[in-house]
Amino acid sequence: MSCKGKNSQAEFSFNVFLIAILVLSGSCVNFAHAQSDTAEPAFIGGMSCGTSTCHGARVESSYGNILRNEFNTWYEQDPHSQSYAALTSPLGDQIGKNLGIEPTNDSKCISCHTTPTQQYEVMDGFTRSEGVSCEGCHGPASLWLKAHTVPDSSVDLVKLGMFPTADPQNRGKLCLSCHLGGEGDQLITHKMMAAGHPRLVFELATFSQIQPAHYRADADYRARKPRTEEIRVWATGQIMASQQFLRLASEHISMDDSLFPELTFYECHTCHHSVDTVRWQTRKTNPLGPGRVRINDSALLISIALLKVMNSESAILISDLVSKLHKDSLNNKDELTSTMNKMNQELSLALGQINDFEFSPNQVAKILREISNAGMGGEYSDFSSAEQAVMAASVLVNNLYRSGNTELLPKNIDDELDDFYKTLENEDDFRPRRLQTKMRKLKGSMD
Ligand code: HEC
Ligand code: HEC
Ligand code: HEC
Ligand code: HEC
Predict the structure, then answer these.
(1) Whose CA is nearest to atom 21 of ligand 4?
(2) Ligand 1 pocket check: which of 80, 163, 234 to mutate, most ligand atoms within 8 Å of Cβ?
(3) Which helix (H) or strand (E) holds 121?
(4) How far are the Cα atoms of 40, 119, 227, 418 from residue 140, in angstroms, in the given order?
(5) Helix H segments across 159-297?
(6) pLDDT digits (tens, 9 = 90+) for 304-357
C-alpha cells in the first residue's frame, strides 16, 4: 500500500486496457481492495470507477438517476483527465526548466495537477498519471466504494470519506483549493507565473457550468439535492473566493526576509500593460492615487454587489474595509493582516446567511442592477474585476432566463452580454471605460 514513485502515461494506458478486461468480467465492485476494512479512507484510483456496469458505460444510461458514462466523459472531454499530461507538455516542460524542478515529481505542481493525496494513504491501484480523477473531487473511495452502490439511506457515505460535492460550500472549498490556491504547496506564486504558468481565472458557477457535465441537474437531481441551485453556488463561490484570497494573502503576502511582497496577490495588470495607454481612474473603493500597485480585490468587489441585496450593512462595512485594505497595503503589515482578518470574519457571517436566502427572480434582478450600477461607476476598472463582473452578469442573466423571468431583463440582453465579453478579448488592450459605458447601458435598460 504505497505510492509508486514513477507513474507514467504508459501505466495509465495499461489501466485503461484493464478496464476492458473488467468490462468482460461484468462485476461492478470486484477489486480486492474495495473490500478493505481499514478505518481510515484511502485512495484506490479512478480505474475502479470505470467498469462498464459502474461509471464506464459507452453511452448514457436510460435507467436510474445517474448517467453511468461519467468515466468516458471525464476521460475524453474533461481537462482534469489531462492535468497530469499538462506537466509534460511543452509548456509544462518549459515551466519546469525555468524553475529548475521536475514537474511530475514536485509537490509544487502535483498538488493541483493530480488527485491530492496528502491527507490519506494510497493503494496499489492508484496512479498519479490519472491526473485529477474521480477521487480528486469525490474523495478517497476505499471505504465507500461498496456502500455507494447499494441504496441504503442509513449509511452516511460522507463519514466514509465521500466528499459532498453537491453542497455549494463544500464544492467551493474543493474547486478553489486548486483554482485559487489552498493548503501547503497548492499555491501559484508570481515566480511560477513568470516561469510560464497561466494566470488563474475562476468563478464557481461558471466553471461548474463549463466543466464537461457528467451529471444532469434535472428534476430528480434537484429533488435529491435541495438548495444546490446555480445561483446559490454562484453567491457562495463569490464569498468563499474572497475569503480564501484573504486567507492566502494574509499568510503569504509578505515574506519576512524579503523587500518585495508576493506579487501573485496583486492585480497583475497594474504592472503588466503598455505604458502608452493610461488606464488609471478614480474609484470609490480605492483611495490610492495613480501609480500604485493594487491588491487584487476582484472577488471582494463582486461580493459587495451581492451583499448590497442580501445584507446592506455588511456591504457598507466590507466596502469601507476594501478602501482600508488598499491604504494598509502601503503602510503597515500588521494593520493589513488585521484588516484582512476582520473582513474574513464579516464574510463568514454573510456565508452563513446564503443557505437561508431566497434568491427570488426579483432579488436576482436586483443583484444584476447592483453589478451594473457599480460597473457604470467605474468600480470594475481593473481587468480581473471586469472579468468577474462579466461572469457574474452572465450567471444572473441565465438564471432569469431559465426561470422564465425574461420580463425582468432588457430585450437585447444577449447582445449586451456579447458586448461585455468583447471588452475582455484582449487583456493587454483592456479599456475600462468601454466596459463602463456598456454597464451604463445595461443599467439604463433595467431601470
Ligand atoms: C486537485 C485540483 C483540482 C480540483 C479539486 C479541481 N480542479 Fe479544475 N482544474 C485543475 C487543473 C490542474 C486544471 C487544468 C487542466 C489542464 O488544462 O491540463 C483544471 C481545469 C479545469 C477547467 C477547464 C478550464 C479551462 O480553462 O478550460 C474547469 C472548467 C475546471 N477545472 C472546473 C473545476 C471545478 C468546477 C471544480 C470543482 C468541482 C474543479 N475544477 C476542481 C485542477 C483542479
Ligand atoms: C494551485 C494549483 C496549481 C498549482 C500549484 C499548479 N498548477 Fe498548473 N494549473 C492549475 C490550474 C487550475 C490550471 C488551469 C488554468 C485555467 O485554464 O483556468 C493550470 C494550468 C496549467 C498549465 C496549462 C495547461 C493547459 O492545458 O493549457 C500548465 C502547463 C501547468 N498548469 C503546469 C504547472 C506546473 C509545471 C506547475 C508546477 C510548477 C503547476 N502547474 C502548478 C493549477 C495549478
Ligand atoms: C473536478 C471535479 C470532479 C471530478 C474529477 C469528477 N467529478 Fe463527479 N461530480 C463533480 C461535481 C461537482 C458533481 C455535481 C455535484 C454532485 O451531485 O455531487 C459531480 C457529480 C457526479 C455524479 C452524480 C451524482 C448524483 O448523485 O447524481 C456521479 C455519478 C459522478 N460525479 C461520478 C464521477 C466519476 C465516476 C468520476 C471519474 C470518472 C468523476 N465523477 C469525476 C465533480 C467531479
Ligand atoms: C508589482 C508589479 C507586478 C505585478 C503586480 C505582477 N507582476 Fe508579473 N512581473 C513583474 C516584473 C517586474 C516582472 C519581471 C519582468 C522581466 O523580467 O522583464 C514580471 C514578470 C512576469 C512574467 C514574465 C514576463 C516575461 O516576459 O518574462 C509573467 C508571465 C508575469 N509577470 C505574470 C504576472 C501575473 C499573472 C501577475 C498577477 C497574478 C503578475 N505578473 C503581477 C511585475 C509585476
Answers:
(1) 194
(2) 80
(3) strand 121-122
(4) 10, 10, 25, 41
(5) 168-179, 190-194, 204-210, 219-224, 230-252, 268-271
(6) 999 999 999 999 999 999 999 999 998 888 999 999 999 999 999 999 999 999
CA 313 to mean position of chain CA atoms: 27
CB-CB contact of 43 with 126 (8 Å): yes
Q: Which three cell numbers stand for residue 228?
A: 444546490
**189 Cβ contact partners less than 8 Å away, ≥ 6 residues apart:** 262, 264
Which grid coordinates belong to 70?
A: 461519467
Which residue's CA lies nearest to atom 6 of ligand 2?
Answer: 109
C-alpha cell at 272: 503588466
Contact between residue 76 and residue 214 where contact means Cβ atoms under 8 Å apart = no
Residues 6+ apart with CB under 8 A from 339: 321, 324, 325, 328
- CA 64, CA 81: separation in Å to the nearest integer? 26
Q: How many residues does the chain have?
A: 447
Residue 341 Cα distances to 151, 182, 346, 355, 436, angstroms: 44, 17, 9, 23, 31
pLDDT digits (tens, 9 = 90+) for 211-241: 999 999 999 999 999 999 999 999 999 999 9
Q: In one letter, which amino acid is 419?
A: D
